[in-house]
Amino acid sequence: MTTHPGSPEANVALVRTGFETLNAGDFDACVALLAPDFIIHLAELPEPLFGPEVWREGFAVIKRGIPDLHAEVDEIFGAGDRVAVRVTLRGTHTGEYLGFAPTGRTVRYVSHEFYRVADGLIAEEWICSDTATLLRQLG
Hints:
By secondary structure, the protein is α+β, with helices and mostly antiparallel strands. Helices cover about 30% and strands about 40% of the residues. It has a six-stranded mixed sheet.
C-alpha cells in the first residue's frame, strides 16, 4: 500500500518510527521527528512543556533510571492528523529515577498516547502513563 504524506497511514508510520528509534536509543533520530515548536502535554503536569530539547532532556532522565527501557506498541491507529497509541514500557530500574534509588527491579507499565502530526513531523503529544503502577514498582 502506498502512503501519501500527511495521510493517516503516513502519520502512523512516522509515530511508529519514533518508537523504533526510541528503542534503539537514538535520541538524535527521535528529535529529528519533532517539529521545532513541539508541544508536550503530560497528564501529571498542569501546563504543557515546549520544544524538542525539553523532550530530549526528559527522556534522558528516564534512560538514566531505566537504561534498557523498551516500548512495545500494543495498538496504534490514525485519523486525520492524529495518531493514538497504547504502549507497554518495560525495563530494569538500575539508576536513580523520580527520587528512587536503583532497585534492580524490572518495571512494566502502560501508556496511552496521542500525537498530532503537521508537515511530516510530530507537532504535539499527549502522554497519559500509568505512573501509579510505575511508582509502586519503584517503591
